[in-house]
Amino acid sequence: MYGADLGIANPSALQPAVTTLALGMSQPASPMPTTAPYLSVFWDQWIRYFVTRDPNYNSLAVDPQNPGSLQARISQLTGLQDVNKTDLSAFNAKGGKILMAHGMADALVSTRSTEQYYQRLQATMGVSTVANFVRFYEIPGYGHALSTVFNASWDSLTTLENWVENGVVPPAQIVADTAGVPGRTRPLCQYPTFPRYNGSGDVNGAANFTCARQ
Q1: Is residue 143 classed as helix, strand or coil in its secondary structure?
Q2: Which listed site, 84, 94, 160, 212, has its alpha carbon 20 to 30 Å from 41?
Q3: pLDDT tens digits for 15-47?
Q4: Torsion angle of alpha carbons 132, 138, 144, 148, nearest 10°?
């Protein structure tokens, strides 16, 4: 959770949503309060409605590392829910394109999971093939769908339309902050690069950053 704002007091209108999607306002309990950490609420609903199919089940009684009699059901659901296909040949053959972006301050889904999927995609289809139809960006400061630190905004739809319909490969792009420091910009860097400050110039301007590996 390093870098996530995690409910720190902030006057932004986005803060209540950020708090909800992070640590919430209450500790986990049974029954689970809706103001508990989002991951706890998600776990509670998954255990009650997917795993046990018992709305009165106490989800806190389940040890995720040793679920006992629930192991078989969890394994069954994993086979259905955790399928991440890495052979997208049919999609690619039809001219499909993918823009993936993941906030590096996401408190719910680790960027490592997306990195691993992207790497598996490359391993299955080949680096050059994946480069023909996928772009993966990581955005420092951005959280799960929104952030009060760096709330990223960029015209991804136009970029995708131009790539699919006009054959225009995504150019170097700029992502803008709409909440933390409104108007602040950064280059949108393809993984595994990140926006590194050049050492001089306005720290709020994308022109003074370079996409670098380290």
Answers
A1: coil
A2: 84
A3: 888 888 888 888 999 999 999 988 899 999 999
A4: -140
